[in-house]
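Design request, tokens follow.
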């Protein structure tokens, strides 16, 4: 077996996935699975030894792999053990720590205070917290942000390892409770961040102890010093410094959201993420330096190993960085002992070591992409290059010497002859001196073209191999990736070593650092402009839902079969190779185009109220499958310089993710109720991610957010239609009524107001749904006065203004008389929504109250007769039956129109 580590790593990873399955965690006692896994591991290891002793190698291999599989199950069970009693999340769940009140938290700074675009950031490892009942010891971590005031006192001098105490109100990280949504809470927990908080004043933080001597703290201070040195080197060029912070040190805090999106669209986001490309570029530079200095083999190995170890210690220790470092160390060790190691074997051994250290890596997207990339390079790209391009590169050696032709196979001999004829014909009229020089240039051009072909094959195979993972986790296909990487990869290979050389020079003398900063700035600007140019190419990148599991499985099967075929000494028959290539191309095209219909319920009206934290977003699906999205949640993308500008985008992470989980690629209509940020902010991402037929708006406002939305709609050719009170029309059998606003669309308000909300009422059969946006009591009283008794009655009410006490007044609630009231509000939001006063009103008159902050996504279906309710979290039980039928409404005289 030439690549045993691949089989072992695959078995161990499979065991981890098996150990994470629901039955192993919920149906059996927590001690049973680890105990049985340990017993079976010993049994299969003994069986393996017996088979080896009897010279039964294949049964021995099977027993060995089975033991690794069971070890994987054991590893998964170990990491899934309950959190300790002292953990901050355990104490919060047990209500030992009060919520929504400032407390004094104690801990140790795990890194240097980080300078951020809006201020400073701190990461704290807990030691304890002061509560009303006394001091509680804690474990866990918190991320703390601070925005300095113009004339406020400065922060105290703090360094990594210092013991501090801080008085602040902490909260668990934001989590969107929607299918498909990005789990930010789990993502931060993987970084040992379990709470987040904001420091209101410098007087609320103090140092209670200093750090002792420790390599960890010294490295943390070195990391902070290097970030400061980069900022000093580039002065006013903050954009360049921000890109280099990301490329050299793994700190993307200063990379603008729009610039980051350009790198994602062009398939070169890996340039901004410290990973194998950066480690490889640094390793190549160190190898080149050692060769130029004529170091002996031992010194060369020590230089490369020591340099990479120092680099990995300074940057963030993410899975791709660790993988690249481990692979380089394995290859260095093999080269030192004159052993040539297989790339797949080395990558698999690195994966095995990482999974043994942390079995949770198996579900990490970065880990998966890293090893998918290495598998594609070692299993597909490398054999293809060795068979296709490299023989021609070797044939260029001594191309003038006819006597060397016999060393090559016939096709390469013909290549050498054709090359000589072409070069001699082109240079026949030159003088002797110029002729030879021109011939050498032509040969070098041919060699360069073949090198570019190598790089293109490599980038194409990488982009192809990562299609399923990119589509599943990032919902993106970049058609320009192979082309853009032809420019981005060589530039990165220059920027990374030159950047570290500049840092070293800057530490020695600031003047030398500034001298190196000039060419670095040119390279970074060239890279940025190149990426921006390709990002603007129409249809060069697009978003899609994640592929079905069967498509991903088939893709992996065909890739593995092609890898096996390429590693055979005897080449596969052409018909078989063509068949495998065609099948792989077909399944890749299916994944990249997603030709599947969305998940719908036939002949039912669906209302899905999404959890977008403190905001609104509602998906309406007609009985025939037409779609209407009302609002998109909020994001503070438009306000640069604030902490929220770099925070989560509900339009991307919740709304789009949920729509993709259902298989949607287009939306018939998007409606904006009003231009407050918690309703309009996420619509930018929605318009960019989906094909939208039309955009409904109510009252226009002269606000930057509204202007930006119209600009995006115009750029994407989405027509804007103004809606106001009065029209009623049929939409796939659903009657749609606009009840507000009253003003003409040409009137532009200076500011957005809750009472400008677009109010919509839907009726299907005998059931009605009322969607008032953020309309408050003034609008409710107006609607009561201007509509006949009984018209406002609806079975489902999306409670206005997130459950504010200024909405859903008793008279309005009595007129609507809903069976189900849905409140869209953020968990632990700062406004206190929903209001206790409003909740009391609802409890007295509504059979069922559902809340997105508690229940997550709320889905309501009706066939026109009965109502069905689903929640992301288990829905609270109804106090009465929701299946009754109300009589048809009366008194509405608006003329119906087909639209």
């Amino acid at each position: 077996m030439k690549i045993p580590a691949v089989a072992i790593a695959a078995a161990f990873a499979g065991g981890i996935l098996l150990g994470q399955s629901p039955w192993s965690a919920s149906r059996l006692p927590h001690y049973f699975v680890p105990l049985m896994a340990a017993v079976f591991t010993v049994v299969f290891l003994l069986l393996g030894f017996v088979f080896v002793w009897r010279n039964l190698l294949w049964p021995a291999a099977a027993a060995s792999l089975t033991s690794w599989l069971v070890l994987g199950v054991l590893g998964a069970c170990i990491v899934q053990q309950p959190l300790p009693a002292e953990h901050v999340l355990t104490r919060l769940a047990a209500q030992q720590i009060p919520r929504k009140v400032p407390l004094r938290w104690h801990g140790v700074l795990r890194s240097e205070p980080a300078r951020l675009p809006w201020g400073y950031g701190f990461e704290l490892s807990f030691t304890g917290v002061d509560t009303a009942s006394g001091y509680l010891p804690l474990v866990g971590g918190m991320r703390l942000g601070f925005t300095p005031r113009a004339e406020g006192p400065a922060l105290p001098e703090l360094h990594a390892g210092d013991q501090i105490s801080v008085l602040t109100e902490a909260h668990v990280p934001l989590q969107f409770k929607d299918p498909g949504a990005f789990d930010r809470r789990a993502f931060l927990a993987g970084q040992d961040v379990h709470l987040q908080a904001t420091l209101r004043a410098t007087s609320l933080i103090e140092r209670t102890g200093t750090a002792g001597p420790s390599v960890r703290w010294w490295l943390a201070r070195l990391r902070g010093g290097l970030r400061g040195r980069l900022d000093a080197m580039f002065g006013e060029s903050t954009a360049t410094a921000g890109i280099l912070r990301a490329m050299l040190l793994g700190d993307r805090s200063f990379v603008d959201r729009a610039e980051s999106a350009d790198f994602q669209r062009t398939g070169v986001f890996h340039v901004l993420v410290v990973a194998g490309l950066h480690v490889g570029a640094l390793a190549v530079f160190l190898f080149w330096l050692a060769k130029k200095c004529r170091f002996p083999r031992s010194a060369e190995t020590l230089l490369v190993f020591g340099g990479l170890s120092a680099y990995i210690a300074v940057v963030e220790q993410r899975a791709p960085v660790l993988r690249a470092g481990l692979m380089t160390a394995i290859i260095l060790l093999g080269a030192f002992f004159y052993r040539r190691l297989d790339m797949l074997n080395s990558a698999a051994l690195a994966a095995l070591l990482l999974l043994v250290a942390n079995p949770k890596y198996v579900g990490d997207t970065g880990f998966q992409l890293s090893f998918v990339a290495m598998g594609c390079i070692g299993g597909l790209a490398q054999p293809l290059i060795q068979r296709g391009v490299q023989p021609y590169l070797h044939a260029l050696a001594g191309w003038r010497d006819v006597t060397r032709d016999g060393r090559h196979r016939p096709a390469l001999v013909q290549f050498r002859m054709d090359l000589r004829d072409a070069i001699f014909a082109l240079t026949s009229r030159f003088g002797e001196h110029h002729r030879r020089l021109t011939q050498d240039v032509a040969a070098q051009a041919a060699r360069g073209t073949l090198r570019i072909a190598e790089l293109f094959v490599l980038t194409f195979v990488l982009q192809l191999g990562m299609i399923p993972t990119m589509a599943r986790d990032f919902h993106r296909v970049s058609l320009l990736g192979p082309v853009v990487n032809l420019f981005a990869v060589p530039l990165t290979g220059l920027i990374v070593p030159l950047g570290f050389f500049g840092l070293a020079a800057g530490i020695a003398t600031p003047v030398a650092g500034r001298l190196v900063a000039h060419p670095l700035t040119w390279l970074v600007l060239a890279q940025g402009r190149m990426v921006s140019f390709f990002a603007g190419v129409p249809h060069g990148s697009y978003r899609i839902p994640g592929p079905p599991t069967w498509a991903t499985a088939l893709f992996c099967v065909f890739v593995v079969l092609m890898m096996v075929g390429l590693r055979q000494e005897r080449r596969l028959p052409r018909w078989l190779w063509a068949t495998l290539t065609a099948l792989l191309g077909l399944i890749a095209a299916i994944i990249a185009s997603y030709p599947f219909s969305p998940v719908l319920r036939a002949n039912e009206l669906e209302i899905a109220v999404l959890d977008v934290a403190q905001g609104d977003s509602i998906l309406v699906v007609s009985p025939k499958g037409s779609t209407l999205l009302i609002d998109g949640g909020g994001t503070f993308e438009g306000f640069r310089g604030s902490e929220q500008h770099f925070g989560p985008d509900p339009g991307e992470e919740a709304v789009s993710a949920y729509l993709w989980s259902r298989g949607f690629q287009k939306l018939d209509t998007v409606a904006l109720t009003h231009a407050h940020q918690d309703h309009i902010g996420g619509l930018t991402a929605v318009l960019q991610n989906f094909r939208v037929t039309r955009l409904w708006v109510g009252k226009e406002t002269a606000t930057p957010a509204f202007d930006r939305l119209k600009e995006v709609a115009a750029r994407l050719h989405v027509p804007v239609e103004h809606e106001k009170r009065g029209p009623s029309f049929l939409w796939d059998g659903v009657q749609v009524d606009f009840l507000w606003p009253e003003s003409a669309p040409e009137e532009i308000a200076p500011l957005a107001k809750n009472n400008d909300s677009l109010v919509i009422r839907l009726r299907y059969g005998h059931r009605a749904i009322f969607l008032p946006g953020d309309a408050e009591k003034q609008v409710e009283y107006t609607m009561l006065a201007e509509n006949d008794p009984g018209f406002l009655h609806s079975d489902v009410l999306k409670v206005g203004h997130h459950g504010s006490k200024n909405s859903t007044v008793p008279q309005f609630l009595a007129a609507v008389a809903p069976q189900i009231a849905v409140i869209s509000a953020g968990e632990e939001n700062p406004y206190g929504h929903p209001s206790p006063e409003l909740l009391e009103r609802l409890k007295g008159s509504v059979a069922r109250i559902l809340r997105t902050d508690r229940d997550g996504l709320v889905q309501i279906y009706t066939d026109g007769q009965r109502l069905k309710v689903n929640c992301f979290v288990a829905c609270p039980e109804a106090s009465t039956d929701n299946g009754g039928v109300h009589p048809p409404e009366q008194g509405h005289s608006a003329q119906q129109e087909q639209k």
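Comment from the thread starter after seeing the answer: thanks! Residues 227-341+477-543 form one domain.
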